[in-house]
Amino acid sequence: MTDSQTRTAASASENRSTTPRSETFAAYIGSGWAERPRVTPAPRDVAPYAARRRERLSALHPGERLVIPAGPARVRSNDTDYPYRAHSAFVHLTGWGADTVPGSVLVMEPNAAGGHDATVHFREAAGRDTDEFYANPEVGEFWTGPRPSLDDVAAELELATGSLRAFLGALDSLDWTVPTLVLRDADPALTARVDASRPGEAADADLARDCAELRLVKDEYEVEQLRIAIDATRRGFDDVIADLPAAVAHPRGERLVEGTFNRRARAEGNAVGYDTIAASGPHACILHWTRNDGPVVPGDLILIDAGVELDSCYTADITRTLPVGGAFSPVQRRVYDAVLEAADAAFAIVRPGIRFREIHAAAMEVIARRTAEWGLLPVTAEEALEADQQQHRRYMVHGTSHHLGIDVHDCAQARRELYLDGVLEAGMVFTIEPGLYFQPDDLTVPEEYRGIGVRIEDDILVTPLGAERLSEHIPRTADEVEAWMRARR
């Protein structure tokens, strides 16, 4: 691994290191270890699915070398890193998830048969006769635990493996007459080396686009992972409701809500799929409120947008808006029911053959109609829905849906004509998440609405004949939510 891809122990902690460096110590710490039992791991369930994904990518890039890095660890502060997560395209194409070794690289080399030979290069386990074993706080086994062998990973992923050190050492001497594409944003240091070696301009954006578009339609494995993630997320919401009295009693109760949900995510998965939003009272009107440092007050609503990410890196994305005291006030229920109506109207039209953007349009018809009925708009609902008007969007500025999968906002680099303007196909998974947000200082709404924010978000699977709400078992109606809170508390 090059110096640009990893911090050495010396550069990270040289001024405070007390690691012994004598030959006597090295000989002593490298000896006296029992042999570890050698058990060949079984192939992962994802392996055949990942192989088919690589085949599809291969067909899009005949004769081209494809370099898809997992990416290095990201520095949080000095010699501490953020929790590691491999690049989503790497995970999708290899099936290697939360336990990916940082810095790994998938290389798909064109072969004579017109396809590609795929190899994952990673930093394999160092022997106990090396100083890395005990002296390198970034990757040494004493510090971060043992790394798998090349053979173990090959068996689990059913994919050829190779030494990352050897690959990087031979990188400059590769045949650079072979057109080479790299996933640019995954590993800037490796991208810079590829740029320095290959001639001319490369269509790297095509590779990023294709990796994203491969995920627009989910396979059976992906759908099952999303079901599992949604089930775990339901249990996280159960935990939050049960723990609400403690959150109410704390001056930063939103932090307790966040922590309660995150505990479930760590217990049943890898982590949360994105920063949890625990937005109580007027904070619910801030769309991406993740500071979560406010109180949780009885009488207010709390908007919780959260999802468990599994070890496979597939994540749920669910929002529920709960009455902190257990029951909605009349005005809160009015707003909640309007958002639910918009969500149901959007879901009702989902089927193969419609365009993705029609989902948003269906939800907006309800939002415009209800806000007009309440006297909040300066025009009629029909006028507001005209493209050059849109006054109702003051109260819901975000879109209604986004694709979901290995990223919470999945397939983000897909072309517009396949995403927003794309035609729905069976196997697509996305959210439906309308909302209404009345800012506490918004003079266009009556005072009784100000400070109320409601969003209801569900995860949707397109089926051959229509759609399935994957999160149907998480209470949605106002009556169901109130009963849910009574049962859990």
Provide the descriptors you would attach to this structure in a database record.
489 residues, alpha+beta, Creatine Amidinohydrolase, Chain A, domain 1, Creatine Amidinohydrolase, 2 domains, five-stranded mixed beta sheet, globular, disordered N terminus
Description:
- The chain is α+β, with helices and mostly antiparallel strands and 489 residues long.
- It folds into two domains: 9-213, Creatinase/prolidase N-terminal domain (Creatine Amidinohydrolase, Chain A, domain 1, 3-Layer(aba) Sandwich); 220-488, Alpha-Beta Complex (Creatine Amidinohydrolase), CATH 3.90.230.
- It is 35% helix and 14% strand.
- It has a five-stranded mixed beta sheet, with helices on both faces. A three-stranded antiparallel beta sheet has the order 9-10-12. It has a three-stranded antiparallel beta sheet with strand order 13-16-17, with helices on one face.
- β2 (75-77) and β3 form a beta hairpin.
- The longest helix has 23 residues, at 220-242.
- The chain starts with 8 loop residues before the first helix and ends with a helix.
- Mean pLDDT is 95; it is low at 1-10.
In short:
Helices cover 35% and strands 14% of the residues. With 489 residues, the chain is α+β, with helices and mostly antiparallel strands. The longest helix has 23 residues, at 220-242.
